[in-house]
Structure formats: structure tokens, C-alpha cells
Amino acid sequence: MCSSIPNVLISAIVWPNSVARKCLNFVMDYHRVVVCEESIHEVFDVMKERFPEALTDWDRLLAQTDFELVYTPKHIDFRVPPICDKKDTPILVSAILAEPDIMISGDKDFHTQEIREYFAVYTPADFLRDFDHRNLKT
Description:
Elements: E1 2-4, H1 6-14, H2 19-30, E2 33-36, H3 37-50, H4 55-64, E3 67-70, H5 89-98, E4 102-104, H6 113-116, E5 120-122, H7 124-131
Parallel strand pairs: 1-2, 1-4, 2-3, 4-5
């Protein structure tokens, strides 16, 4: 099970030939995708403000993708690892509650030892390097 962070989702939608898109396609084909409620709202807000022409693609992705939606709690009653950008706390909390095997994020703030105690964290490029062996020659 893999959890995706808004920056990966935005990049995958806006730049169809990006590593983020290749990663998202691979994850959707071979793994269970987990997306938290907060990520969906954040992606929509960023897309609406910065990439309004891609909102239809975002809606299509949501409608056509089989993913697990994780609730983002408003009140947190457990210790959360420190993260530099406090606006990322709801996404981190949702991921901890979802207990994915892997989180995919281009945001360096998620790539800390404290967060890695809960799950492995990969950039899209690192994830593809380590898990996508479809193009390896034997």
C-alpha cells in the first residue's frame, strides 16, 4: 500500500511525461493507492489557483482511479513526528493512521528519520528505481 503526497499528485497531473506521472501510473497498476482527504483538498486548491486548465484531468483521475480514501482527523490525540511545515501535519497524521508500507513524496520535509519510523518514504524517482523492474534486461 502506497500513500501519495499532494506534490506528487500535482506533478503527475500537470506534467504527463514527468517522473511523478510514471511513478503514479506504476503505483496504480501494481499497488494499492492511499490518498488522504486533506491531500485531495490541497491538490484541488493548488490546481485551481496555479493550473486551472488541469482541473478536468484531476477530476478524471479521481473518478477513474481505484484508491483508498483516508479521513483526515481534525483533532490529534497521539504524538506526531516533528515536521518543518506545520501545514503538512494533517497529511502526516492521515498517513500514520492509514499505515501504508510506503509514502511517496517529493517534499523533503517528509524524508526524516522520525517519519521513517512509521513507514518508508521515497521520492518518485527513488521509488521507481527500487521497485519498477519492468525494463530491466537480464
